[in-house]
């Protein structure tokens, strides 16, 4: 007589694999609701773990949110850096002219992280969350400033230029781009923002009489 088939046992994940799964699931939950609305119960269910397991890995909902923010904003920055570096190796001015284009392209890979970053701004009254957002923005600022400094040193830009102010102009475009995404403004607005970066670069270039 054939023996009854036993239900397949769920494969036990390694701790680092379980953590990665929780982060991925939590990103979806936070992106589809808000930090305040997302409950630890929902976060645990989506990750297929218990709430105690969630606390074991991250300590609290805020700890999980900070981990999601840190993990996926870092991935976004790697994608952005790769695109910028490839373009800058060929033409530094093209890298500056197309920075917002490349930023948009990196966003399309994982649009959820921008929604989470926007939520983080809303929660910036918490000093830990504010520091995480500031680190992310400082890294983007650093990427842009490095490009501007290279173009400046190579004689393409106005020699009297304030490098920080020039970088700030690009950052303001990026912040307006994030605002557009959160308000779901028409796609035409993005084209305007991309053109703004080209207009800004023309203003930075060295004057040739």
TrEMBL record:
PROSITE patterns: HTH_TETR_2. Residues 39-58 bind DNA. The keyword ATP-binding does not apply. One of its GO terms (molecular function) is DNA-binding transcription factor activity. Residues 16-76 form the HTH tetR-type domain. Keywords: DNA-binding. It comes from the Bacteria. InterPro entries: Homeodomain-like_sf (IPR009057), HTH-type_TetR-like_transc_reg (IPR050109), HTH_TetR (IPR001647), Tet_transcr_reg_TetR-rel_C_sf (IPR036271). The keyword DNA-binding applies. SUPFAM superfamilies: Homeodomain-like, Tetracyclin repressor-like, C-terminal domain. Transmembrane segments: none annotated. PANTHER family: HTH-TYPE TRANSCRIPTIONAL REGULATOR PKSA, HTH-TYPE TRANSCRIPTIONAL REGULATOR RUTR. This is HTH tetR-type domain-containing protein.
């Amino acid at each position: 007589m054939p023996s009854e088939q036993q239900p397949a046992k769920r494969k036990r994940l390694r701790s680092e694999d379980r953590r990665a799964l929780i982060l991925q699931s939590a990103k979806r939950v936070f992106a589809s609701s808000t930090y305040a609305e997302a409950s630890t119960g929902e976060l645990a269910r989506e990750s297929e773990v218990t709430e105690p397991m969630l606390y074991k890995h991250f300590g609290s909902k805020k700890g999980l949110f900070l981990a999601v923010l840190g993990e996926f904003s870092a991935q976004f920055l790697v994608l952005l850096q790769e695109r910028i570096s490839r373009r800058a190796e060929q033409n530094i001015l093209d890298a500056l002219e197309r920075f917002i284009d490349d930023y948009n392209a990196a966003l399309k890979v994982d649009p959820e992280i921008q929604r989470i970053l926007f939520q983080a701004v809303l929660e910036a009254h918490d000093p830990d969350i504010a520091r995480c957002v500031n680190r992310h923005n400082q890294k983007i600022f650093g990427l842009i400033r490095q490009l501007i400094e290279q173009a400046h040193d190579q004689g393409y830009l106005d020699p009297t230029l304030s490098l920080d102010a020039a970088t700030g102009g690009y950052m303001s475009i990026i912040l307006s781009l994030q605002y557009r995404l959160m308000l779901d403004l028409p796609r035409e607005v993005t084209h305007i923002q991309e053109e703004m970066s080209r207009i800004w670069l023309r203003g930075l270039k060295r004057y040739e009489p």
